[in-house]
Amino acid sequence: MTRPRKVMKRNVPSKKKEMFPISDDFREYLERHNRYRALPIQYDDLLHYDTSLVLLDQDGNDTLWETVYYPPTEQDELHRALTEIYALLKTDGDTAVLEHLQVARIDFCTFGNSKPFRVRIINRLNDNYDHFYIKKADASRVYGLELEDLLSPNRVMYLVHGDTLIEEHIAGLPGDDFMRTELDTSTFNQIRIAKEFVKFNERCFVRLLGDMRSYNYVIDITPDIEGYQYRMRAIDFDQQSYEGRKNFYLPQYFKENNPIIFLGIKHMSPETVRQYQLEERSLIAARIKASLGQVKELFDVMVTETLSKPDKVYQLKHELADHHRHSAFLRCETMGEIVLTNLRLVLQKEFRQSIVFEQLAPEP
Q1: CA-CA distances (angstroms) from residue 330 to 247, 280, 304, 318?
Q2: Separation in Å, CA 134 to CA 54, 145, 238, 306
Q3: Alpha helices in 208-249 (DSSP H)
Q4: Closest listed residue to residue 145, CA positions, set 218, 21, 245, 235
Q5: Which of 39, 288, 325, 344 is the most exposed place for a label (fewest CB within 10 A)?
Q6: Residues 69, 27: Cα–Cα separation, whole Å
Q7: Ordered alpha helix ranges (H), the chain
Q8: How far is it, in rounded angstroms, from Cα 359 to Cα 362?
Q9: How far apart are CA 239 and CA 231, in angstroms?
Q10: pTM recorded for the entire structure
């Protein structure tokens, strides 16, 4: 039972996404690919804190996180378990690194669907720190992480055990902060930002990752010979193929992304946008080809899963059938089948590569 907390009242959404358990078949898939590992503690163990304080940012604003504190009798054992988890995540369990690591802070967020804990780990040798997250395991979220790892240019480290999910911290400037501070730059950089958003928009739609408002992704900025390179990375995978609205999977339709949308309108022609869309589809097709066996293995499980409500499945398959003008979606009965059909149709529309699409699913 959670002890009383010293917290401030906040306005948080009352409507939460339904969570789905990890099935036996999906667990076996995760075990085969070294994602399912025994953990020294579970998510529920972290709920036994006795005090929490609102965490403020440098300007004194509420971050929607609380720093939590545990009884001294439990703290040492808890911190030792958390450093072990960090070693599992980062060094495949090499305990040699534990000597120099310690837990600097544990934060808790009641705002998100997964109600995550964020653990700050510090290296005593150089005071460098890193974070990782502990969340309730939700099947659709884990599918989102796995699809991100297989189909995007980004590798993602995560572990699952029981109903506990461990995620690495994805570094970058939050999208909303980026739009406030980084868009007033050279025309060359603005074009690169707009280009990356087109590619990010395409990646989300192809694999049906939803709700990519500006605060659900980060921008990784890399200095280049001339200007900067930008990469947008999703950090929230709760809405992997869950909602029924097609536009929910297109970041271009969220008003929070309008500042970047306006850059694209200003600097890019429809022909240029189309070129970048085709480039990203080609890259996704190449990634599938490189990991075809594992992608097929994943979808063999995903197409059988319940990952959303029947009315949302019905709505999405009809909206995508209208969008693609293809009846293949109408035969889909699960969100996994919809994702696979969308992936296949979007890529087949433009490419006649040697990738064996029929190994992923029958011809639509």
Answers
A1: 18, 26, 16, 6
A2: 19, 14, 14, 24
A3: none
A4: 235
A5: 325
A6: 32
A7: 24-32, 72-91, 139-151, 175-181, 187-207, 258-267, 270-290, 292-302, 310-324, 335-350
A8: 7
A9: 20
A10: 0.89
